[in-house]
Amino acid sequence: MRDYKHSTIYQIYPKSFYDSNGDGIGDIRGIVEKLDYIKSLGVDYIWSTPFFVSPMNDNGYDVADYLNINPMFGSMKDVEELIAEADKREIGIMLDMVFNHTSTEHEWFKKALSGDKKYMDYYFFKDGEADRPPTNWQSKFGGSAWEYVPTLKKWYLHLFDVSQADLNWNNPAVREELKNVIRFWKEKGIKGFRFDVVNLISKPEIFEDDNAGDGRRFYTDGPHVHDFLKELVADTQIEDMVTVGEMSSTTIENCIRYTDPSERELSMCFNFHHLKVDYKDGNKWELQKADYAQLHRLFYEWQTRMQDNNGWNAVFWCNHDQPRIVSRMGDEGRYWKESAKMLATVIHAMRGTPYVFQGEELGMTNAHFSDISEYRDVESLNYYKILLDEGKSVDEALKILSERSRDNSRTPMQWNGGAYAGFSKAEPWIGVSDNYESINAEEEDNDDSSILNYYRALIALRKEYEAISDGKISFVDMGNPEIMAYRRYTDDQEILVIANFAGRDKKLMEAVLAEGYKVLLSNYEVSNMEKIFNIRPYESIVLLKTP
Ligand code: TEU
Ligand code: CA
């Protein structure tokens, strides 16, 4: 049976994790070599982002063959070894299934381009004039979501890069092909799946212009998405595996349906609303300071409504698309350690399954790139041009990228203070962050007070306390935006979590501490029990109620 409630999941971006053969690119053998490190964190599953055959325009999210391995990352034998070695350590491997689209280099798309009707129906090809796309929808990476193919006199839909063509899930043949992919990997011993942007798979019957947005309202949580998921899960018998759907611009109502066990869809969902509180008017490319009142409200709503309706959240701050959280909502300077630990506490004590993205457990920061030539991500390179076209100066555009680029999370894992942070013997495909001499795994492993050892303690707490893994949640002191405080409880256990998002002292408003508590974990060396009503900068504390 899937046991996602007591589990913690570690996310690996293989290209940046560890390079075992000295070509500057992380690989599958590199993951195998670091399994003992991963085991030392106490995690139960590893989710790796895609390593399948791909032209790598979007670093593997453009899949050209779901059943074979990109030689850049290794071979099928390496994957089999990874599964076997992880299994020995009681770690399950989860794969990333990119089923909303394929690469335009996939053989299905190539056949479609050659005019093969069967395969044209695997995608969305629409008639039209070369100067008029079928709708005004925008790609998530900038520009039109349609590309014209002169030889066919048709346009095809791509919600992401022009090299990522959207699959037509209305076609049962497409659904069968994708089920076969799942069956193949299940057979290999894979223990779970992450489904990329899976709430975008159901497009509307009629394609029309969006006069109020970029088109997303027509295909987000689309008309048949729940039916498609139910069918995929039932026909591949993955109901008992750990599955997580990445949900773009979704709603709580839909996430309840995706994850309520009686619906037989998924174990849990990623949603991103809490990671948009520093977008100005919802625009990722306009900087704004994080709105903590909104963050607080969002956590409150998602945690309590999912709880009250039998839903289950994936809880996280970081992934390969998000800037580093300590740079974003913490403090890279004076309170680097405290703020990284506080942010971790808030997530790991919540109701849901926590995810740790490689390097997050070290307090890795944003990349600090200052020149456009340092960036690699297709989205960053597209938006750099768009920002300049909109009239931003080079400095302004670079400032925005330095805070918003996905490359912030893709710099090499910082293993030690040696050359290239111990990631590779050769120059890595993307630059190492400038602080690797002080922020690295070797250094932190030897330091009891490190962020790394704090993550280990937090992950262990979830295993030890049922109130954390499977208890209820209720929020405390909602009137104080910069203080996040909540109780986790079962019938016979109660835990109280208090966290200060401000870089200054804050007062706790409610008299929550009238009763006796014992400190389980604190991010300050000397605990604050007597003066708990005064919470220090970025302080966080996990307390167990004593009888
Ligand atoms: O991401 C989906 C997605 O929409 C975002 O996280 C996206 O990067 C952001 O909205 C842009 O501002 C998933 C993958 O995680 C990502 O790496 C892929 O690029 C994308 O799907 C396409 O497969
Ligand atoms: Ca390599």
What would your notes on this structure say?
There is one protein chain. This protein folds into 3 domains: 9-102 and 172-458, TIM Barrel (Alpha-Beta Barrel), CATH 3.20.20; 107-165, Oligo-1,6-glucosidase, domain 2 (Alpha-Beta Complex), CATH 3.90.400.10; 471-545, Immunoglobulin-like (Sandwich). 29% of the residues lie in helices and 18% in strands. The strands form 7 sheets. It has an 8-stranded parallel beta sheet. The longest helix is centred in the middle third of the chain and has 17 residues, at 292-308. It is globular, with a radius of gyration of 23 Å. The two termini are 34 Å apart. The mean pLDDT is 96. The structure holds 1-O-alpha-D-glucopyranosyl-D-fructose and calcium ion. The site of 1-O-alpha-D-glucopyranosyl-D-fructose (TEU) has 14 residues, from loops.
Summarize the structure.
With 547 residues, this protein is α/β, with parallel strands linked by helices. The chain is 29% helix and 18% strand. It folds into 3 domains: 9-102 and 172-458, Alpha-Beta Barrel (TIM Barrel), CATH 3.20.20; 107-165, Oligo-1,6-glucosidase, domain 2; 471-545, Golgi alpha-mannosidase II (Immunoglobulin-like, Sandwich).
The pLDDT mean sits at 96
Q: Give the total of beta strands.
A: 24
Distinct compounds present:
1-O-alpha-D-glucopyranosyl-D-fructose, calcium ion
Radius of gyration: 23 Å
Largest sheet: 8 strands, parallel
Helix content bin: 25-40%
- Identify low-pLDDT runs: none
Structural class: alpha/beta
Total tally of structural domains? 3
